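Check this:
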Amino acid sequence: MNTRFLSTIALGLGLAASTMTLAAHAAEIKNIVIVHGALADGSGWRKTSEILEKDGFKVSIVQEPITSLADDVAAANRVLDLQDGPSLLVGHSYGGMVITEAGNRPDVAGLVYVAAFQPDKGESLISLASSKPAGGMNIRETKDGQYLYLDPAAFAADFAADLPEEEADFLARSQVFASKAAFTAKAGDPAWRKKKSWVVVASDDRSINPALERDMAKRAGSDVTEIKASHAVFASQPEKVAAVIEKAAKDAGK
């Protein structure tokens, strides 16, 4: 077999592999993995999840323990391990810290930040939050000094002002406490430097200053959608949030 023939075969195989890679890259992402934020769990994403499922997506929600950033990234990785094919990672609030690290996996096609922290290397949730104070300042410590929670009396105003009173009250009573360790942990190399990202800015957010959400998105070069909503935009405006996620899933595959 002569050298020219071998070269021709190698070139053909290389072109075929490249074509397959481009075809796979161009495929629309169907796996959506959602990482909830602190002070709430994944159940609040039910309406958004149902819309996405109806539109043909497979949705998985990470119920991270919020005991440390490392623990929560590990929880996200366990759910990502269950997916067949590439995934779009979605993070709300503190969940943005988690997807920024977990998103470095090769099987993550893109990142969607929903009223979320979008850290650069070395930044923590506390350092970002204190750079532009939010409208509500009602975070409390547990008696052991290890965990943080939002004062139930202020929960509706600070977190879910646009939800029905009964729903906001339930969220206040079922909130997931966050460890101080999770809030003070410093982020590693951010996935948004290498991958496409989309941001939902909740313009009436009292938990994260909307100006901070905009600044982080601008720094990352993210595609930004503003929605007039509270921090619980995923629950109060599920159709609009789902639309952003679906657009991201389509564009991430291009």
